[in-house]
Design a protein that fits this description.
single chain; 428 residues; mainly alpha; flat
């Protein structure tokens, strides 16, 4: 116990994950020595296995929390953005889903899922334990953690003017999004004509302000002294910086998804696929929601979230029209279910990053992810059949869904399918 402690801040910065792993192993050996007073091989091995199991829980919790937390806002994940684009394209009259109403629905769901998922991961990986640990060991571990946090905090330094300005615009952006049309109280959008301002209006306004607002604290001395220097100050955002940092591939991917979904609608493919799901007409809507969420959650384990939602959203929209239920009742769980991919490393980029640490095996993610998927499906079904009913008015068949049928020529979907695939129209 008199040997020198390893110093975290002097570790070589070659591989962040590996250096942390080796540090955990060293701490494990020291704790075993403290617990027994002498280095016992069996106790060392047992303590090392326990530390490794807990470390796996930490690694798995990070990507899972990223996937779950992204569902709380419309801008958190690509499937949420695709849902908004699809609603504007397929149901132009739908103005129920906005940043505020989605947050009211998704934030409680996210918190509930996070708590249940945390309990499951903690129980599976031994974070809840009755093992007796000496006070000296706990103090040693806490001092190491505090030292790392304090050093990282000191490296940040004081807040700069540009950082404070960006934080101001960020909170203003969030406030404007939430208060535009919160539904339960009148928002600031009531001062404009209906449909004149959207969430995109707020985003464009804030981003435009970043191109003009200075990145350094301006000086107004030249207002009173004409001889004072008046040097130009760089703005918070420049077009060159925008070109270098904006993920144009994501924008093209989203645009391609909208084009593909529109093609499915115009060609009648989504109508045909919806007709193939005719047996679901005899299934109660809550059971249909549960079944759809399970299917999409399983499908997205092997396919991209974006590709999955692009394929399923047009089909779910047509299926909802056939079932004469609110389209949001099927499209929202399908969208959120795309983010519930926990079983495989290839399911989401966060899963792949955690798996690349080398400390996780596929069986570890499968064993944890199966129960996480079940928890996610059940909590999402609970949310859709409780508070989502009041937020999105899911108990009624809205007029904007009826107008969608009228825009197709006042012809029922069954007639369209029968006319398209009737024997008289088949050329031999």
């Amino acid at each position: 116990s008199n040997r020198e402690r390893p110093k975290l801040h002097n570790e070589p910065n070659q591989n962040k994950i590996c250096s942390v792993s080796s540090e955990i192993q060293q701490l494990s050996l020291e704790e075993t020595t403290f617990l027994n007073g002498r280095p016992d091989a069996a106790n060392k091995k047992k303590e090392g296995e326990y530390q490794k199991q807990v470390w796996k829980g930490f690694l798995i919790a990070v990507p899972y929390a990223a996937s779950i937390g992204g569902t709380a806002t419309l801008t958190g994940t690509a499937p949420n953005l695709i849902l908004i684009g699809q609603l504007k394209s397929v149901f132009p009259g739908c103005d129920v889903v906005n940043f505020g109403s989605w947050f009211l629905f998704a934030c409680p769901l996210m918190l509930l899922f996070l708590i249940l998922g945390w309990l499951w991961i903690a129980l599976l990986h031994g974070c809840f334990t009755l093992r007796v640990r000496k006070k000296k060991v706990e103090e040693e571990a806490e001092s190491r953690v505090k030292l790392v946090i304090q050093e990282d905090y000191k490296r940040l330094g004081p807040m700069q003017f540009a950082e404070g300005a960006v934080a101001f615009f960020f909170f203003m952006f969030a406030a404007l999004l939430f208060t535009r049309d919160p539904k339960f109280v009148p928002g600031w959008s009531k001062f404009f004509e209906k449909g004149y301002v959207t969430d995109a209006t707020t985003a464009v306004t804030i981003v435009t302000a970043l191109f003009f607002f200075p990145s350094q604290k301006p000086s107004f001395k030249w207002w009173f002294d004409f001889k004072a220097p008046n040097n130009p100050i760089k703005p918070l955002m420049s077009w060159k910086r925008t070109q270098e940092t904006v993920p144009w591939n994501i924008i093209l991917l989203l645009g391609g998804g909208f084009a593909m979904a529109r093609g499915c609608e115009e060609s009648g493919l989504s109508i045909w696929l919806g007709s193939r799901l005719q047996p679901l007409q005899n299934v109660p809507p809550p059971a249909a929601v549960l079944l759809i969420t399970v299917v999409i959650a399983m499908f997205t384990e092997f396919a991209s979230n974006t590709a999955t939602i692009i394929i399923f959203l047009p089909v779910l929209a047509e299926l909802a029209v056939r079932l004469q239920v609110n389209p949001l009742y099927l499209m929202i769980p399908g969208t959120v279910g795309c983010s519930y991919a926990f079983m495989l490393p290839v399911s989401t980029p966060p899963n792949s990053i955690a798996f690349s640490s080398g400390l996780l095996m596929v069986k570890d993610m499968v064993k944890t992810g199966v129960v996480m998927n079940i928890i996610g499906v059940l909590t999402l079904s609970l949310a859709m059949n409780t508070w989502a009913f009041y937020i999105f008015d899911l108990s009624t068949y809205p007029d904007w869904a009826k107008n969608h049928i009228n825009s197709n020529g006042n012809t029922s979907l069954v007639d369209i399918v029968n006319a398209t695939f009737s024997p008289a129209n088949v050329t031999l």
